[in-house]
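To illustrate the input format used throughout this study, we show a single complete record. The first block contains the structure-token representation of the backbone; no residue identities are included at this stage. The design step must infer an amino acid for every position from geometry alone.
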């Protein structure tokens, strides 16, 4: 959903993605009230469509993406796992046809994108932030990808986004330990551009946005393209068919079922080697 106005608009009342335009600046809001903006499949699809529309909008100089109600985004909506991520075909479709295109739509958007992060930036939220160009975080923000407790690994396209931002060591720390980093730790490990006190966060987001918007728009777009082109490593598509198929083996393990069941029941999973 899009609104076009010159005043601050309220975040969506229900789960969804909204973008609005204020002059030369676009504002994208992630919202899932009561769930720390956990991302549903429909929300991932809306995010992709949103950035496709933004990419074709004339006159935009910068886009700011943020979450509603004191969180950026707290990963996936686990309630969908049993019905939409239960088989190999389903998880392949989810990661390759839902998440990967949504992240690509942000990464490949020709307009500079700023992630304004406050609160939880976890799982899919961190994946979204990773493909933005700048990340301005409040000092109460938290970062992590604790999917090891759910019994599944990170998908190739999502891991590529993380590695475009973090070192191999940091990526493995997040994925193997499942730690949730505070804002200062995230800054020291290169996950965010800057961290400011919550009281100053809105002003810093505004100032960062204005600095980008005041630059030459063609130069900004070309700089983004040049840096992306020069920094791109092997792409997920470079994996062989056999390698890509191996990424979805987790769905056939008992640990995947144990992890999801434990999360839904709010208990600790007991994993086994299987």
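Output of the design step:
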């Amino acid at each position: 959903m899009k609104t076009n106005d010159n005043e601050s608009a309220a975040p969506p009342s229900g789960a969804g993605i909204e973008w609005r335009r204020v002059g030369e600046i676009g504002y994208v809001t992630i919202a899932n009230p009561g769930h720390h903006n956990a991302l549903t499949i429909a929300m991932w699809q809306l995010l992709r469509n949103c950035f496709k529309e933004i990419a074709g909008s004339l006159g935009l100089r910068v886009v700011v993406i943020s979450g509603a109600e004191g969180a950026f985004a707290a990963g996936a909506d686990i309630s969908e796992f049993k019905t939409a991520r239960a088989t190999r075909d389903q998880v392949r479709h989810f990661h390759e046809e839902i998440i990967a295109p949504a992240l690509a739509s942000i990464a490949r958007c020709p307009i500079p994108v700023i992630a304004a992060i406050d609160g939880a930036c976890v799982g899919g939220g961190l994946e979204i932030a990773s493909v933005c160009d700048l990340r301005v975080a409040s000092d109460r923000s938290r970062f992590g990808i604790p999917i090891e407790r759910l019994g599944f690994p990170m998908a190739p396209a999502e891991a590529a986004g993380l590695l475009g931002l973090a070192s191999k060591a940091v990526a493995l720390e997040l994925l193997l330990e499942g730690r949730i980093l505070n804002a200062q730790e995230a800054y020291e490990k290169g996950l965010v551009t800057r961290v400011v006190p919550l009281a100053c966060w809105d002003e810093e987001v505004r100032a960062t946005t204005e600095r980008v918007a005041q630059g030459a728009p063609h130069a900004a777009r070309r700089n983004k393209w040049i840096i992306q082109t020069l920094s791109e490593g092997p792409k997920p598509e470079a994996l062989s068919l056999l390698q890509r198929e191996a990424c979805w083996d987790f769905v056939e393990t008992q640990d995947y079922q144990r992890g999801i069941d434990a999360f839904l029941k709010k208990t600790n999973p007991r994993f086994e080697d299987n």
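Structural context for interpreting the output: The mean pLDDT is 88. The first helix runs from residue 41 to 55.
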